[in-house]
Amino acid sequence: MNALAGKVALVTGASRGIGRGIAVRLARDGCNVGISYAQSAAQAAEVVSQVEALGRQAVALQADAGNVAQARQLVADVHRRFGRLDILVNNAGNAIRKPFDAITEDDYEHQFGLARGCFFTMQAAARLMGDGGRIINITSAAAKNCPADAAIYAGAKSAMQAFARSLSREVGMRGITVNVVAPGATLTDLLRGAPDHILQSVKRNAFGRAAEIDDVADVVAMLCGPDARWLTGQIVHADGGL
What we know:
The structure is a single chain. This protein is an alpha/beta fold. It has 9 helices and 7 strands; from the N terminus they run βαβαβαβαβααβαααβ. Helices cover 46% and strands 13% of the residues. Strands 3-2-1-4-5-6-7 form a 7-stranded parallel sheet, with helices on both faces. Helix 4 links the parallel strand 4 (87-90) and strand 5 (134-138).
């Protein structure tokens, strides 16, 4: 416990779901935490309270994950608030799932805009991060499986995976690791609103169930810790053996 004592983490899209679970888990391991949220200030405030209840410091900042200027400012604000940045978890995003023929240019721009925001958040963090830092992108099993009706979602998540693998080769000499966690079906609001065929797909993994949020958060925490110092440029498929 407290393996990350004194570290500072930024978790994007952390007002709910997987991001919230990651923020709280990293705080439990000793991190002070900056979180970003798109709309729900009230939910973000709840996460701050959870982190503070663990004896850590936290700040919630509103940012549009697809806006490059806001992404850069978010990183700068967290660094200024805490005086350092050790961990970045790019979790913010949503899924547009439509038949290929129904996808519009606006859909495409929105989904890949989130990937663009991820790229420049990584860039800003890598510039400010000290040696031995951790960068983790949260993607999806869809990037591997490329299911029907998920073309632009899978494509954008695949781009985030490529960003991580390439950056890992540029910052490794500084001891910074860059990895990807690709969850399968996880019990979040996003899953509850998914089509029936997605809900049924959870039965195909080795455990025959959807992941709990903590199942994914624990994998992220492992990658953030000192024992993962030799793991970089990897895609960890946290999908229960899907």
